[in-house]
Protein 1
Amino acid sequence: MTANGDLDWLPGGMTEKKVWFITGAGRCLGTDIAREALAAGRRVVATGRRPVETDQRRGTWLDP
């Protein structure tokens, strides 16, 4: 374990990769959280009730 509590290895030599799971990413706060997490270099899984709206917002999170 590292000083910040992360596992530095898992069985089989796999390293732990943290992923943010964000619900409500098709609207306001969820979109803002997803954008900031990605900007900080985090991995993100984002969901929303309205797939089309969530997919449209996704384009605003990523650089082309």
Protein 2
Amino acid sequence: MYDEEPTITVTPAPPDIDFRDFIFITPVADVPAIYVYLSEELKGMSRPMRDVNVDYPPSQIIIDKMKEPKFQNWANDTHSTDCSDIAASLLNVGDESGYILEARPRLRGNLNVYENGIIEPNMEFHQVYTDGKYVYDPRVTINPIPKGDWEQHIKDINPDGVIISDKYKGLK
């Protein structure tokens, strides 16, 4: 029998801990049970991405669109589909409250963008669709990303600075 009181150690401490964010791992000979924190991480962020806030749900119509296999194949094709095409497509699917965000590097042509599992350097700009609460960027994840987390992610992978605006220009 294990006589000691259980201890809780979470390193690093995730924000807004919820029991659903953990899995239970059963003990092996003389090792107490442990819970392991689960959360999707965004490249460059020093903490896991926050979960969806149930009080402010993401757009289900956008989530459904991003989960369609045909849309995923089209969106992940970096040779023929531009980020601006994806953002515009999701804007057309979403309700009228959504808009396009654009990230531009402080030094022209020096934007790092995380796409399909790797950081692509030397970009001019990157556009994403947002409903104001979440960013929808299917080349990062098919899950909605809290807007503040996406902004932190794009800033963290661009140490020379980035400007994020809803006044998008594209290649103009």
Protein 3
Amino acid sequence: MNAKRLQEDPTILRQTADKTEAALSEESDTYLPPRRSVHPTERERWLRIFYRSLLWIFILLVIGLLLWGWKRLNP
């Protein structure tokens, strides 16, 4: 049905092209960068803090167990 309409009135194609160009020029005038680049997530920062805290907890646990073991062996 659309093909018949285009054959009967070729100006429709021109009008749609004009609307598309107008929309593109309007978008370029009001272009906004993606939200992710404007407001980056703090996920990487919190992930690094989480892993470092896990590492420190593990280190402190090993040190605590070593000290506890030495105290038990040498009363």
Protein 4
Amino acid sequence: MKKVQNLGNMRLLRQSPRLGFTLLETVIGLGIFCLLTTVSLYNLKDYQARLEEKQSLEWFKDTFKGAFNHAYLTHHSSKFMIDNKNTIIFDISAENKKTKEIKRKLPSTMSFNENSQKEYTISSSGQASPVTITIKSTLTNKTYKYTVQLGWGEIIEEKT
């Protein structure tokens, strides 16, 4: 009976409480952490690209409206151009025949429709002919249509 009691004490000595994690628990925890980090970094990169697209579209609309207002108020014509490198150029005439060029390159995920007009003139009276400008996004798979109304050039945005 003493031998049985001694074995019982030995089992109690060997089963002392653990002070750390096992290797398996550590590897599982590290795997979960890496997975969460990877997903969040991917979403952050996607968020930055979407934000850049949104800022470019807002800049385009604001600058277009500003060019119309400038032409009307100063009685100098303005020009809107799209070059082959997806750069938007606003050529705004000023007094003394000086021109001010405002340029911005679209993000690499955006491009103008091939059928879009490459050059658009705003007369010195602040009026222009109607036109539709189409920008495609490969990131969001959306097409942004900007229709400029006849006369005062109100720009209307349509997402498809």
